[in-house]
Amino acid sequence: MILLWGLLEDAPLAHVHAELRRRDAPVVLVDQRAVLRSGIRVEVGDRVGGAITVGDTRVDLEDVTAAYVRPYDAWRIGAVARAGRDSDECRHACEFDDSLWQWCELTDACVVNQPSRMAGNSSKPRQSVTIRAHGFRVPDTLVTTDADAVRAFAADRERVVYKSVSGVRSVVSRLRPDDERLDDLAWCPTQFQEYVPGVDYRVHVVGDDVFCSRIESAADDYRYAARQGAEVSLEPACLPDDLPDRCRELAAGTGLRLAGIDLRRTPEGAWYCFEVNPSPAFTFYDRHGQGIAGTVARLLHEAEAV
Length: 306
What we know:
Structural class: alpha+beta
Helix content: 25-40%
Oligomer: single chain
CATH architecture of the largest domain: 3-Layer(aba) Sandwich
Strand content: 25-35%
Mean pLDDT: 91
Number of helices: 9
Shape: globular
């Protein structure tokens, strides 16, 4: 049995679900919108077992051989959000989530991805150490709450960008000398990096499969190019030399069965790595000629068949 956890409104989960159904794979969806009609029991002994109920549907966890998990914060969704953070509904939802995350961590099933493996993304500086250890360059970086330290860092560099230091998605923005938000740094540790010119490459690693997309855009962050009135050009590409193997090794070294790796190639041919995303929203790249959802489904289905 293959278990999916999240929302069908979430495109990556929905596309993997559709691919599994197309393969006639045995799949069950643990829908977060039904959490108030759901229950869970996790048993830890010689084996990790227990059961999940969603309405009238029961899933024996010992029968689950693979799982793809992309849950959102339960307290933000539907009836739980309407009930409020201090409600019994919210406590039930959070306890359900905690229990299912514990199962994801302890089970022998193929989980894409286990919480301990995704945790590295919660600290960008720590992740940078891992990235550098796998042979990629990392931009000069400053993490600080000191505005004067930022001004000194920027004075020695032609261009500087900044973004969240945690795993929370943020928009990469260019630092401007008159940016009044520097005064807010005391309340929000932020990561500043020397701007690296070049062409972006997004690499998705699924097991041993590598998908590469070449992206060109004048925007500071191509994901939000429209906000700057910029265009994005994206097409499948091939990585040169040993880079595919290095990306596989980076994903494996962080324990990720699915990873989204952000690279940039400078005009001089140097390769920089900015981030390893442990739960990438890959459907944008699938719409431009990749087959990532189908490969994730195959990975799960093959684990189910073992």
